[in-house]
Amino acid sequence: MAERIRVLIVDDHPVVRRGLRTMLEGENWVDGIVEAATCAEAVSSAVTEGVGVVAMDVALPDGDGVEATRRILLSRPETRVLMLTMADDEDVVNRSLRAGARGYVLKDTDPDVIIDALRTVAGGGLVLGPRVGPQVLTTLQRQPVELPPPFDRLTTRERDILRHLATGETNARIARHFGLSEKTVRNQLSAVFAKLGVADRVQAALLARDAGLTG
After folding, report:
1. What is the value of pTM for the model shown?
2. If residue 196 lies in a helix (H) or strand (E), which one and from where to where?
3. Please, which residues have CB within 8 angstroms of residue 24's CB and are 6 or more apart in sequence?
4. Are 89 and 69 in contact (CB under 8 A)?
5. Which among 210, 215, 214, 213 has a CA at the least distance from the CA of 52?
């Protein structure tokens, strides 16, 4: 990973935060480490500190780490979140990934695997820990993914067109792929730009890539 990234550790146990901080301090991709013990602190720190990746516990004193993840991504859709928890529960895994988390790892996983998972998520990858069953992905494939704003405002067709745009396809090629006229594609893209609050296709493509829509 060429770019160094700030990491936010969210856990109400100081020992856990300290242990993870110690492991991360030796990583050359880490630009800085921020800690939070509650949902409120996590959301505030993610925004004010400009963190790139979050290690997020689920059970926090003032609420649910899944909801904190949703709130963080509402304000900073470019942030990547790895759930790091003792909650070995398929429903919690599903909720986390639908909220926008890019991974889910149990706390009793080997420390090196946890660090690798954070690095992978920070780089835009998706990670499920060794004990998170493959049935989770099967379940998710049958369920609509809840995209973070403003992408949740797009229709299914608009999201599909945006994905093709983000990979560098021209309007003509997108039109051929969907069996549409170029004028229809232009109109669809105008609606996409308006909903995303961007001025052109370059800004839209960058926003889509940052949100992981091209993965």
Report:
1. 0.64
2. helix 182-196
3. 7, 9, 30, 33, 115, 118
4. no
5. 210
Pairing of strands 59-60, 30-36: unpaired
Alpha-carbon distance of 207 to 17, in angstroms, equals 31
Say what angle helices 182-196 and 156-166 make with each other, to 10 degrees.
100
Q: What is the pLDDT of residue 152?
A: 80
- CB of 21 within 8 A of CB of 35? yes
Residues in the chain: 215
Segment-wise mean pLDDT, segments of 10 residues, the chain, 215 residues = 85 95 93 96 93 95 93 90 88 85 90 91 82 54 59 84 88 89 92 90 84 65
Tokens of residue 43, six digits:
């959301």
Whether residue 106 contacts residue 88, with contact meaning beta carbons closer than 8 Å, is answered with yes
pLDDT at residue 130, as a whole number? 66
Amino acid at 73: L
Q: Which residues pair with 4 in a beta bridge?
A: none
Q: Smallest Cα–Cα separation from 65: which of 89, 33, 49, 48?
A: 89
Torsion, CA 19, CA 115, CA 68, CA 49, rounded to 10:
80
Q: Which helix (H) or strand (E) holds 128?
A: strand 127-128
Residue 4: both structure tokens together:
């160094």
Other Cβ atoms closer than 10 A to 22: 11
Q: Tokens 């509650």 correspond to what residue?
A: 38
Whole-number Å distance between alpha carbons of 1 and 145: 27
- In this predicted structure, what is the pLDDT of residue 144? 47
- pLDDT at residue number 150: 83
